[in-house]
Specification:
The protein contains seven helices and eight strands. The chain has a five-stranded parallel β-sheet with strand order 5-4-6-7-8, sandwiched between helices. The protein has helices spanning about 60-70, 80-90, 105-115, 135-140, 155-210, 210-215, 225-255, and strands spanning about 10-15, 25-30, 35-40, 50-55, 75-80, 95-100, 125-130, 145-150. It has three domains: about 1-45, no CATH class; about 50-155, Response regulator (Rossmann fold, 3-Layer(aba) Sandwich), CATH 3.40.50.2300; about 175-255. By secondary structure, the protein is an alpha/beta fold.
Length: about 260
């Protein structure tokens, strides 16, 4: 948990200053430090999960900010769909909570836009709206929303939904780490012997060329044509080996991508 060294109601995003001081800062909004000022927090505390709230109603944003911070989250707010899209791409929050009925860009459009951008496609997305119909719920879920909570709502329901999304995302990230580790193990065990053999051949024959002056005095002159052919063939074999493994890694990566 982060301990703020200023009177901060909520903050926008973290940064770390130069390597000498290694102090952590939060871009904050509060009566005490003003919009956009920097306030410090004590180094060594774990970073909070960031929740982006997109809603055109100020009172709702304020209530959600207070609730989220009381429950240990960092809150980001956007008062329009356009601002929400921009902030989501810039800040990459852990969860997005979004209203549907907003001027100019609706929550549906926000969800669709973010789901079609590679950087934000996998961020958990929760609709929080006064619209309560089966058709609208289905529309939101078809766009890729993870949950649909209707107003008036119980804060406990929202908190539970956020925790569930975070847990699922953590499990997915762990799954990717495990798969990547397995793939790295495959490369680690399978590639070195073949690479070592090919590289050893190239090194051996290149040393013959390097030491040509010493070999000219011997009874067995250096056959440049034969050496060149061996180096060329070995290099091509090595290139094919690398290409095959890269292709295998690409296919494995495609297989691991979740289908939504």
């Amino acid at each position: 948990m982060l301990e703020l060294l200023g009177n901060v109601n909520h903050f926008i995003y973290p940064r770390i200053d130069n390597k000498r001081t290694r102090r952590l800062y939060l871009r904050g909004i509060s009566a005490g430090i003003g919009d956009g000022q920097w306030c410090t927090i004590r180094r060594g505390f774990a970073m909070k999960k960031k929740i982006l709230v997109i809603d055109d109603e100020y009172d709702i944003r304020l209530q959600l900010v207070k609730f989220l911070e009381l429950n240990g989250f960092a809150s980001l707010t956007a008062e329009s769909g356009a601002q929400g899209i921009e902030m989501a791409r810039k800040e990459l929050p852990d969860v997005i909570v979004c209203d549907i009925l907003m001027p100019e860009i609706s929550g549906y459009e926000v969800c669709n836009t973010l789901r079609n951008h590679p950087d934000t496609a996998m961020i958990p997305f929760i609709f929080l709206t006064a619209i309560d119909s089966r058709e609208d719920t289905r529309k939101g879920m078809n766009l890729g929303a993870d949950d649909y909570i209707t107003k008036p709502f119980d804060f406990k329901d929202l908190l539970q939904s956020i925790h569930i999304r975070l847990e699922k995302r953590a499990q997915l990230e762990q799954h990717y780490r495990d798969k990547l580790k397995a793939l790295q193990d495959i490369f680690g065990y399978a590639m070195p012997p073949q690479l070592r053999s090919s590289l050893s051949t190239i090194i051996a024959f290149s040393e013959k060329i390097t030491n040509f002056n010493l070999l000219t005095a011997t009874a067995e002159p250096l056959d440049f044509q034969r050496v060149g052919k061996v180096i060329n063939r070995t290099a091509w074999d090595l290139l094919k080996l690398i290409d095959n493994y890269q292709y295998y890694a690409f296919l494995e990566w495609l297989r691991l991508i979740p289908k939504k």
